[in-house]
Amino acid sequence: MRGVICFLLCGLLAGVFGSVEVAQAKESRQAIVVLVNRVGTEELAQLPAWQRLAQGGAAGWMNGSTGESRRKEAAYATLAMGVPGELKATLDVQNSWERAADGSAAERYERWMGVPSQGEVLVLSMAELNRSRSQREFSGQFGGAGDALRTAGLSAAVFGNGDRAPVQWRPAALLTADRLGSTAYGDVSNRMLVAATERPYGVRTDYEAMWSGYQRVKGDASLVVFDLGDLGRLAAYRESLTEERYGALKRQVLAETDQFLTRVQAESGPSRLVVFVSPQVSKEARARGELLAPLAVAGGGWQAGKVLTSATTRRAGIVANLDVMPTVLHFLGAQIPREMIGYPLRQTEEIAQGQLPDLLRVTVWNYTNRAAVLTGVGVLAALALWGAVSQSWPSVAVRLPVVKGLLWATLSMPLCLYLLPLLRPESLWDVAGGVLTVWLLVIAAPFRWLCKSIPVRLLWLTGWTLCAVVADVWAGGTLAKASLLSYDPIVGARYYGVGNEYMGVLVAAGVLLYAAALQIGVNRRRAEIAFLIGSLLLTLFFASPELGTNTGGALTAAGTASLAYALQRGWSWRQSVGKMLWGLGVALASLWALNVMGGGHAPSHIAAATHQVINGGGDEVLRILARKTDMVRRLFTATIWPTVLLVLIAGFAWRLFLPSARETRWKGPYAPFMRTFAALLGGAGIGLVTNDSGIVVAALMFLYTAFPGLLLWLDSGAHRSMGAWRQSA
Hints:
It contains 27 helices and 17 strands. By secondary structure, the chain is of the alpha/beta class. It folds into two domains: 27-351, Alkaline Phosphatase, subunit A, CATH 3.40.720; 361-724, no CATH class. The strands form four sheets. Strands 1, 2, 7, 9, 12, 13, 14, 15, 16 and 17 form a ten-stranded mixed beta sheet that branches. Keywords: Membrane, Signal, Transmembrane, Transmembrane helix. Residues 1-25 form the signal peptide.
């Protein structure tokens, strides 16, 4: 019995001392964040210390998107809050002892906040900054990271500034301050600068003073942020310099930055994490479209020579600025605020560090050439539409085989562009040749030898489109991440899953496939069962956090499929709308089950948004609705084309739903297609409402509605009677 008691006591003491050791280990951890604004690939080549830091840990490219703009104010605000944001009020940061006409910063702080200052660095405008955030923005607040550190019993320090006399610019304090605007340690005053008449604004960073300040708080501050402002000052001063002088000063600034970074790099170790961040890229990099900034992490247990990734992007080598502060807080053992939507950085071996330059080159190439390629597709679609319409005017009509070829070519573009990355194009000529090659192999040759009728051709085209996209996303989405019609990691609206472009394509292709099967005479009962099972699987595919990850896609797929099934059955409009609502309910249940109840395996933006609604309640719902409404407003005010598209959709719907048309078309030889076109128009409406860029969904679903409709119209010969009527008139 005594042995048992002794054993239990030893186990209890071991547990107690083990817990103390873990707590002490967390307390001894330190994270050092070095902010160097305006660094691009040219600047990296002159920072050997960055290369050593990256090789000793992990590196990658960081998307600096802030949701609305790429101004420096928004870049620092987004880093600090962990959500897209901007500074909409004056940033006033002072050391507590700095004085103005109405007293010291500490006195003003107590006057405004109602409590004595507890820190050395004070964000005096913190209340105004948080109050200025609008309902359209995410619910994050400035000071969330500082509060999380304070709750965990940890302190922070910040050193350096980007002052440009007489303008003060001290944004690094936003990363360390709590919601009362206080940072325990640091110096952001002019003491961090030294007079230098040959430098921009007559000052330069005093690296020795900064390092001395760090040594003073090294044992007390768990988070230390350095703001190296010289490169930013030089960028702001560039217009006043000759190119030769700018180049000489830049080399000098980068050499000094490299020396300081070498010191910081030496501090990295198992219990000390070093993070190098450039909130924005240089002007030269921006001109080349290189909008992904360098990011490196070393120490803190990170293995050497790895590549960065995160649950935010699920992309090897590409992460988001939203992930920086969650990474720091996670390492220090502090609770990540629920408002932050980023995730801690991870390391991956999916690609090697040596492949990061190629990753940037390919990503930038897609970003800079996407508009030209999509403009070409738009011109092709316009020519096809004009060719079809011209058949009503015999005097100007384009040859019918040419028109049909243009219509089929446009319909096949989503599939061709999706498969194009297999050929690794490196120029616009490569794109043209690659698209032509894919079109000849996958579309033209089968159409010539295997698929003669329109329904069989649509069956072939939609079937291969569905298989290609679903199989690729199931295997990791290699093609989805590189397609010129898919999402763009530089834009940063989406990084994984199925974007709104191919979501619209998949939904429309699935419903059109069902119509083609009915048209060619497949057993109706079997076709219905297959369609219902396939639609359910496609809805689950979109709802899954590991696959499609598209809320609007799940809703659009379920709603469109339910409507198509009801219309094909010949049910009334009331019954059909009821079935559509039932389908939307199934989609919502699937989203909840996969992303909230069982979404722990693959964190996604759907789950994050759901948890924000759960935690934020009605206010968060209003924020989401306000952001979506604002997005729609901007889409329709930025260009006339969304309005033109809606007019075309309305005109097509008017022709489709005319009472006379319903008698002749809905019960005619192409009835399955006519009913499907009606369902696709309803689905386009669902996609328009349930997606931020719903106009893109509507456009691609309309492509699979109008162009097959025109092909059927031309095939039926109805254009001849219209042309003859016009001629006689």
